[in-house]
Amino acid sequence: MNTRLFVSRLLGRFSICVFAAAFLLLGANYSAAADPESLTSLDTAFYRVQSFDTKAGAKPLAINHLGIETKQAADGGYLITAALEGYPAHAAGLERGDIVLRIDGADFHPLLSLNSHAAESQFRPHSAPAELTYRRGATVLTARVEPVFESLYDSYRSATLNSVLSFAAGNKVIGYVRLWALTRETGDLVTLSQLLQSLHDTDGIVLDLRNSYGYLASEHIDLFRASRSDFLSISLVGKPNSNAIEHERNRLLPARQRDDTLRAYRKPIAILIDSSTRGAAELLAYQLAKLDRVTTVGEPTLGRLGSYQRDGGVETLVENLENNLNKSLDGGFLDYSAADRVLIDGNVFEGIGVKPKRNAPFPFETVSRGDPQFQVAVNVLMGVI
Length: 385
Hints:
Blueprint: H1 3-10, H2 16-26, E1 38-40, H3 44-52, E2 63-65, E3 68-72, E4 78-83, H4 88-91, E5 99-103, E6 106-107, E7 130-136, E8 139-145, E9 148-150, H5 152-163, E10 165-169, E11 172-178, E12 181-182, H6 186-197, E13 204-208, E14 213-214, H7 218-222, E15 234-236, H8 242-252, E16 269-273, H9 279-288, E17 294-298, E18 307-310, H10 315-325, E19 333-337, E20 342-344, E21 347-348, E22 358-359, H11 372-382
Parallel strand pairs: 11-13, 12-14, 13-16, 16-17, 17-22
Antiparallel strand pairs: 1-19, 2-9, 3-4, 4-5, 5-6, 5-7, 7-8, 10-11, 15-20, 18-19, 20-21
Helix pairs in contact: 1-10
């Protein structure tokens, strides 16, 4: 239960007495999952944001995890919305659409079940394997998993490398890569370039940007485009000072000199997007979709170009209330700050996002033997190569 977040949402609307009553009635069941604009220290996504935002030279915080993204299921448990390739849940056969119910017989929580002292910001390796009970459709299954103790920054980077494959489709060869992590580190950009070089002999690529997270570099775009002639422009609503514009440009897409020796992938590309495609990945999909040989497939993105920041409002009053309610929950929280003044190519992007050229619904709750969005992407490629 995140007391700080709950309090900050109520202050200014209710009196302290009303707050106290609401806490007693609702506190035990409150979850930041109901408020996607905020992340608390009891959310796994909180540590994903923290690890990607770690300053140069600092080490991202390691946590115990299974390599899944989840949301609370309507009828109990946690619905898996994505499973990182090569990580415990994926290796054990768990898939998107499965609902995790219990771990070692206790109710499952994606963070606290493996990090019992997360509320005190204490993380130690969880050395013992665990038994997961999960539901797939109407069937209840079990799986033995051994959590990893690793930062989500490192996990998402590794999952990107683990995702790469090529396969035969008819008499053609299709490549696939899921960009779980977009980073601006030179070493990562070199590795990604080499990874794509290994797919240059394919007839087309499925570029999966679902659940992608991180920061866009011009080199990411250069890997798929031979020219910067129509690079997206970044500006702000109104006439703010040039420093504000430059700040947003550096945050979203810093200007770097193009490497003329880079061999861009010039064949057809199908890009998978949906509501989990965020920020940098949305801009990458938007820019690449300007090419006729690129088709976006899936569902609309949300237009999330903002950033998460610590909320500093009414700090003293909140802390006083927390001290009286629960002294242990002091991990903090992050509020999403919308980039509603940012214009991409002269148009508002926040809350608008990218609309796919080929619509292919795939609700997270769907239990499927395959990935219908991926299949549409392959069909799109087979129609043009």
